[in-house]
UniProtKB/TrEMBL annotation:
The keyword Disulfide bond does not apply. This is Ring-1,2-phenylacetyl-CoA epoxidase subunit PaaE. Residues 13-122 form the FAD-binding FR-type domain. GO terms for molecular function: 2 iron, 2 sulfur cluster binding; flavin adenine dinucleotide binding; metal ion binding; oxidoreductase activity. It holds the Pfam family NAD_binding_1. Keywords: 2Fe-2S, FAD, Flavoprotein, Iron, Iron-sulfur, Metal-binding, Oxidoreductase. Gene3D superfamilies: 3.10.20.30, Nucleotide-binding domain of ferredoxin-NADP reductase (FNR) module, Translation factors. It comes from Stackebrandtia albiflava.
Length: 374
């Protein structure tokens, strides 16, 4: 996804129980959920703009549900008021998003993993360290893709007094725009540095250019008329697969360097994984799982995902989406070889360092060792 120069050895995050401080209605199908973080836990939940939280609950039929939701607030709000906020849009047949939109109330407790993810890239780490530059950031988002980008935009504007932000925000209609009040507040606070462009697919706009989908053709026209590409330092793309991949390719085709295009996917279900190679190896594999300083071994089939097999012996393993999007199940491949069906979360630096998404990886050797502590 986004480019990260280096990462320190990480400690596996542990589940924490946080109290819901507020549930705010954003649209008919989306809410903002704020969590109260105790003073003694604020260091644990410190985050870089663009990261996400993984939430866990048990469904009425006893199934464990895990979902990842991007943080839309800033680190300043966490430091000063002890609040973390995520945006949750209800999706068809979404058990967790439906619960959040209809059954979650202030005072409820939710199990939460500390922040994960690297969408913000090097810029977010600079802001986190208090380093200031003068840059022009631009975002291309649709629907709930605004959630992490709202944190990025706000952080950039508040941290860097001379930086500018341009945001292309696609939605069906004005009534479906998430965080409309927060965006209006940013416009009022930073009128000369924040340029917000709404593009609506089902509602007429004054300009033909701003009525329709943010597809490559429309983006090319917008770049020519409204957002000169050579004036932007870094791009942040977030939303459905088609939007993100189309926008990224349009930017690359126009000469934007890939290291300056940061991407985040929310859903990849519409993208079928590539088929398993016809000559894929058969038989069993002995899988060794390294977690919390100790190892466990389990026998698995070569048609089974590493994560599913590992969970049989280490049920506390971290995971969330199981779709190759969130990277919660990331581990380093210490020994053996795997076939990774799809990857929307790891960048080249991760892959070069030997990391895999265990939810998408199937063994190709008789012995396999993965390290979740790396």
């Amino acid at each position: 996804m986004s480019v990260v120069l280096s990462r320190p050895k990480r400690r596996r995050p542990q589940w924490q129980r946080l109290t819901v401080a507020a549930v705010d209605r954003l649209t008919d199908e989306a809410v903002g959920v704020s969590f109260a973080v105790p003073a003694e836990s604020r260091g644990l939940f410190d985050f870089a703009a663009g990261q996400h939280l993984t939430l866990r609950r048990e469904s009425p039929d006893g199934e464990e549900l895990r979902r990842s939701y991007s943080i839309c607030s800033t680190a300043r709000l966490l430091r000063e008021e002890g609040l973390l906020r995520v945006g949750i849009k209800q999706v068809p047949e979404g058990e967790f998003s439906g619960y959040a939109n209809t059954g979650l109330n202030p005072g409820d407790e939710v199990e939460v993993l500390p922040p994960l993810g690297s969408f913000g890239g090097p810029n977010a780490e600079r802001w986190r360290a208090g380093e200031v530059e003068s840059r022009h950031y631009a975002g291309i988002v649709a629907g709930s893709g605004i959630t992490p980008v709202l944190s990025i935009v706000t952080t950039a504007l508040e941290t860097e007094p001379e930086s500018r932000v341009t945001l292309l925000f696609g939605n069906r209609a004005s009534g479906t725009v998430m965080f409309v009040d927060e965006l209006a507040d940013l416009k009022d606070r930073f009128p000369d540095r924040f340029h917000l462009i709404h593009v609506l697919s089902r509602e007429p706009q004054a300009s033909r250019l701003l009525h329709g989908r943010l597809d490559p053709e429309r983006l090319t026209e917008i770049f020519a008329d409204l957002v000169p590409l050579d004036d932007v330092d870094d791009w942040y793309l977030c939303g459905p697969y088609g939007l993100v991949t189309g926008a990224r390719q349009t930017l690359l085709d126009a000469g934007v360097a890939s290291g300056h295009v940061h991407t985040e996917l929310f859903f990849a279900e519409e993208v079928p994984p590539p088929p398993r190679p016809e000559n894929a190896p058969q038989g069993d594999t002995e899988l060794t799982v390294m977690l919390d300083g100790r190892s466990s071994t389990v026998t698995m089939g070569k048609d089974e995902a590493v994560l599913d097999a590992a969970l049989r012996v280490r049920g506390e393993l971290p995971y969330a989406c199981k779709g190759g999007v969130c990277a919660t199940c990331r581990a380093r491949l210490v020994d053996g070889k795997v076939h990774m069906a799809r990857n929307f979360a790891l960048d080249e630096a991760d892959l070069d360092a030997g990391y895999i998404l265990t939810c998408q990886s199937r063994p190709e050797t008789d012995n396999l060792t993965v390290d979740y502590d790396a």
